[in-house]
Each structure stands twice: as structure tokens, then as C-alpha cells.
Amino acid sequence: MPVQYASQIEEHHAVRGAAGVFDVSHMCVADVTGARTRDFLRHLLANDVAKLTRSGQALYSCMLNPAGGVLDDLIVYYLNESWFRLVVNAGTRDKDLEWIRRHAQEFAVEVRERADLAMLAVQGPEARATTATLLPAAARERSLALPVFVGCEVGEWFIARTGYTGEDGFELMLPAAQAVEIWEALNARGVISCGLGARDTLRLEAGMNLYGNDMDETTHPYESNLGWTVALEPCARAFIGREALERVKAAASARQLVGLVLEDRGVLRSHQKVSVPGGGSGEITSGTFSPTLERSIAFARIPSGTVARVSVDIRGKLLAARTVKVPFVRFGKPLVSVL
Amino acid sequence: MSQVPADLRYTKSHEWVRKLPDGTCEIGITDHAQEALGDLVFVEVPEKGRTLGAGEPCAVVESVKAASDVYSPLAGDVTLGNPDLAAAPELINQEPYGRGWLLRLRPKNGASDTLLSASEYEEHLRAEGF
Is the ipTM here above 0.90? Predict the structure, then answer.
């Protein structure tokens, strides 16, 4: 996946306004199979796959170490009682598979990487309708009927109404040999090829974390704006990391991950120092220029508490930024005001 | 291959220099540099009157991807920073050798001229694998 195919900003606007396609085949798809798959995933993941009741339904979750640190974030799809599908990050593939397989033994489930599948994310307000034109009639109806965050099998394909952009769209998992043909057919129907650069600006505007930037093994979900993905109920569910998280929850997290909009001109970047009024400091975890807001935006990890404004050290200059609730942008519309 | 106008001088760090009739020099970044940076979204140009040494950082250009320093090809005093770039940094992408210029300076007398000719700069790009 290149950083950009043409102009990163044009690719970004194409997804907000029409449709773009991303080759995310580098991500790792792994099928977990066996009679006790659900029990296993309820042990492995911080979110609770008991919430998944309909075939094809997806859940976003963190996978934690015993200290509550985030090993990875992932999407889990429920196919049937003995088959769930995980999509994990590319950079953590080996570590994840090793970890998952190690814990799988006790539940006698099998973990199989699906390197035979390519993955294309078609995103934007026109993405679903355009993608559907490539499908046989029956599959077209089924895919267009999918609710948000649900997928379905269509022959050798798996089509899910999920994504990482804050727009409607599909993520397609399909035999790798068919990917180029589908990519070109989408291009021919006006769907723009998009690179890693646009993927980053879109996900940041959408308020979605990037593993390795915004959270990692040294941070827990409550200081990563991911508390909503941790299912402490029911209290009898003993998932990995639970005890550590309960301690954090009881003590209240010392740090929080917030959204920032830069009020001055400039560009927020990861690792810039953030100072909070009255003392205390933190740092930017992800920052960029938002093509939709035409302002720089970021996530920053700072001390907990209500903070309206902070200052950010950009090459020795202290610039003013405002804290905001993420997402910054959803379905093509700004959700935060800019001056 | 990116554009390399024959009438300009260049540096290995991808700046260009145009000698103006009044004896000052206009400085910018090359077509290759703007293409490598991608869409520019923020530019910081030097204040008038600032004295620059050759090779000293004199401007910052930021694309969506990254921030990058621009180094002064010559020693001298800044006579003007391009005032249009604050509102329209994309001028550098659109016209790197024209309206996307960064600054003008009056070179110090006797400053050694180690700048590259267009053909030398093209050779440098090829040597870097472009």
C-alpha cells in the first residue's frame, strides 16, 4: 500500500464525498474454529463476544496482556458457533498469532491465518452502491441489506459493512487472485485508489485510534479513549487483563486521550509535547492536517481532568490548541467547530 | 522526471536559486522536492531582515505527511518572505518555480557560489535514484 496514488488530499476528499478504495491486504485475517470458540474469545478479548448473536455481526475489541496493556486492537466477526474471524493489525501479526495460539490450546480451538484472502476497503457515501454493481443480483441485494457493522458470506467472498474512515462502506475479503480485477473494476466505476496517507487522515478525523501510535502494550484502554470497548459486565467473565483494569477503574485513570484542534497555524505531529494549564504535561500520539476542517487535529495523552485548552510545543514555539470530543468528522460533516 | 529549469541554480538538498535583476536572489524548493513532500498544508517563511548563513535552516514546509526544513543555499539578508504562502501553501505544489517561491535575499558579498547548474542537479537526482 503506497502512501498516496496521486494527491493525498484529493484521495481524502474522494472518500468523504464519493468513494475510494484501499488495499488493506497487509492486515491479518485469522479464522478461529472449534466447538469452544466463543468461550475462548470471551477469555482472550476485553470486549465480550457474547454481544454477537447474529451471523456476520462484528465487534471491535482490544486484546490485552495481564497488566491491562493493549497487545492489539481488532475486529472479530461471528460466523457461527464454531467459527469466528479475527482481523488484526499487520505490524503485530506474528506477536498476535503466537499469543492467540498459545491461549487457544486450553480451549482446543484452531487458529488459521487466511493469507489466501485479499482485503479491499471501499469507503465513502457511494461505496456500497458502486461495489454492489460488481456483484451477482442475489449477492447485491444481500450486501445492500447489511446493517452497519455486519457482514455476510457471498460465495468465496466475505462482505462487511465496516471501515476505518468514518464513512459508510464495505470491507471485502476475497480470494487474492480476484483482487486486481475488482480493484480495476472499481476504478472504472469512478472509485478512486487511496493510499496509507489518506487512510491516516480519514481515521484521525473519524476519531479512530491507530495501534502503535495511540495505544500499545504500555498503555491501557482507559487512557486510550477505549474504555467503551471494555466489557466488565458480566463480572464473572475472566478475560485476560481484567484484574489490572479493575484496579485502574477503581483508582480512576491518571491519564486520558483527548482530541485537539490547533487554533494557530501549523501541524500537530506525534510526540510533540503538550502542556496543560496549571501544570502537567503529555504528548501528541497522532497528529495531522485535517483536509475536511482545514485545521490541524490530533489525539493527545494528557493528565486526567477537565481541560479546555492546552499548548503544544511545535519546534520551540508554544501554540494554542482546544480539546474536543472525537470524532472530528463523521459522514462527511464536521462535528467540531473551527474559527 | 521532474522539471529542472535551465536558468536556475540548485542545491543537493533540493532548493533552487534565481538571480533577480536588482541583485537579490529568489529561493524555493524544486519540483522534485514538492512532489516528494506531497500536498503542502503549512509553510513558515523567514522574516525580512533576518541574516542567514549558507546551509542554515531558513523555512519549514509541511505536507500532510511530514515537516521538512529548507536550507538557505546562500549567505545573506532576507529581503522578503513570500506573503502568499500563509493562505495558499499549495502554490508550492502548483508552481514550485513561480508563485511558490519561499524567500528573497541579498547575498553577502564574496559568498562562495557552490550551487549546481541545472544539468548538475539533474545528475544529482539520477544519482539519488530518481
Answer: no
